[in-house]
Amino acid sequence: MQDQEKQTVVNSQADETPVPEQEVSGAEASLESRLAEAETRAAEMHDAFLRAKADTENFRRRAQEDIARAHKFAIEGFAEALVPVMDSLDMALRVESPSVESLKEGVEMTLKQLASAFERNRLIAVAPQPGEKLDPMKHQAISMVPAEQEANTIVSVLQKGYMISDRLLRPALVTVAQ
């Protein structure tokens, strides 16, 4: 039994043929060059990552600044449209001896300027007509009155409502039929 074990050990040692040193150093050089390439590639990727991260941070910061500016100056366009209205009202008060007719004409012109400013800034009047169906999304019923028209229809408008684009700013105040 011991002879067989010795024979197996001798045979296994014989199977291991020594590798020439040139092949080992060539394999090491190949591995070293591959490692150097991988390290270079990793460094490039890390640099690209840092640049992308910095770009993203700069974009986020600029977006926040733009939002802050938009909030700060959001009303600027509307204010520019209202300045001529204010000028007209100031001029009306400076008139030495206004007549009723000139005051009425001045108020009508000022109202046109204001309506134009509202229109340019998408501020739309909600002015329902008598007989229209009550729309709780745009109208606020103040009271119900006996009327000869259909129930829940508008009898009179007490105050116009206003919308900015598609958003209700103030509902129209109305009375409705019982």
Helix percentage: 55-70%
Work out the helix count.
Answer: 4
Count of beta strands = 6
- Sheet with the most strands: spatial strand order: 1-4-5
Low-confidence stretches: 9-14
CATH superfamily of the domain at 123-178: Head domain of nucleotide exchange factor GrpE
At CATH level 2, the architecture of the domain at 123-178 is: Roll
Distance between the termini: 117 Å
Q: Largest sheet, if any?
A: 3 strands, antiparallel
Summarize the helix and strand pattern as letters: HHHHEEEEEE
The CATH topology of the domain at 123-178 corresponds to: Nucleotide Exchange Factor Grpe, Chain A, domain 2
Helix/strand/pairing class, anyone? alpha+beta
Rg, Å, rounded? 43 Å
Overall form: elongated
CATH class label of the domain at 123-178: Mainly Beta
Mean pLDDT: 86
Strand content: 15-25%
Which short descriptors sum up this protein?
three-stranded antiparallel sheet, elongated, Nucleotide Exchange Factor Grpe, Chain A, domain 2, 4 helices, 178 residues, three-stranded mixed sheet, alpha+beta
Overview of the molecule:
With 178 residues, the protein is α+β, with helices and mostly antiparallel strands. Mean pLDDT is 86; it is low at 9-14. A hairpin with a 2-residue loop joins strand 4 (161-164) and strand 5. The protein has helices spanning 2-15, 21-73, 76-94, 100-120; strands at residues 123-126, 139-145, 154-159, 161-164, 167-170, 172-177. Helix content is 60%, strand content 17%. The chain has a domain at 123-178: Head domain of nucleotide exchange factor GrpE (Nucleotide Exchange Factor Grpe, Chain A, domain 2). Helix 3 runs antiparallel to helix 4 (100-120). It is built from 4 helices and 6 strands, in the order H-H-H-H-E-E-E-E-E-E. A 3-stranded antiparallel beta sheet has the order 1-4-5. Strands 2-6-3 form a 3-stranded mixed beta sheet, with no helix packed on it. The longest helix is centred in the first third of the chain and has 53 residues, at 21-73. The N and C termini lie far apart (117 Å).
